[in-house]
Amino acid sequence: MSRLQSYERSLERSRLSATRTDRPRVFPLCGLEWDLLDDVFAPVYSPSTGVALELLGLNRRPPVPRTGSFLEIGCGTGVIAVMGALAGYDRVVASDINRRAVANTAANAERHGVTDRLRVVHGDLFSGLDEADRFDVVFWSSNYVLGPDTYQYRSVHERAYVDAGYRAHRRYLQQAPHHTAPGGRALLHFSDRGDLAELHRIAEDCGRRLSVLDSCRVREGEYGDDMVEHMLIRIEQSGN
Q: Measured between alpha carbons, how far is residue 145 from residues 3, 160, 198, 209 in Å?
């Protein structure tokens, strides 16, 4: 395992980001201001949220107009879901396993006036949704660093940084296509801080095909100077 992929390094980033005395209550992104609650992943200490917005084409002001429905898994502060609503998606659902993130997304939806078309649910991946829910875009900016299968999380905040045994990734690959509307797209934001070869092995086990739609290289940011390749990956059932 490379230093870049070290799960211990990512867990230390989680601890630092959650406990910093200068952690802001409000932060700027995409020319707007956003609330940040305690115990929620902080976009100010990582470029990943900004990169996800760029890969999705949601970082522009004014936004490129969108239509249809959008589901964000692991919504955190809600920046991506809110930007999707501002871009014109008429039905947006945001889900997170962290109840503080659910509250944070709700606060930012209210701050930016999109509560009429954005609903926030508490759940582990898709567990907060109805089985019949389908979306034109399903998206997860994942906790792509692989942790040992035996790792026991010390806080819900750590779940935003490390996926023990890639159990969440396996479930996402299995379930995301089932919540995608006909003609829609199931998408995953991943990076080379994760184990791409293992992701492909899991996809094969699940009967899924992965294709990279876009990518970019970005400096790590607050806690490192390494260049990281970020990828927007489409998930499809094998044979489609």
A: 11, 10, 11, 21
Q: Terminus-to-terminus CA distance in the chain, angstroms?
A: 34
Rounded to an integer, what distance in angstroms lies between the CA atom of residue 159 and that of residue 35? 20
Is the pLDDT reported for residue 1 higher than 60?
Answer: no
Strand partners, 33: 28
CB 134 within 8 A of CB 180: yes
Q: pLDDT band at residue 240, thresholds of 50, 70 and 90?
A: low
Closest to 109 measured CA to CA, from 90, 128, 85, 88 = 85
DSSP 8-state symbol, 45: G
Contact 35, 42 (CB under 8 A): no
pTM for this predicted structure: 0.94
Q: SS3 for 238?
A: coil
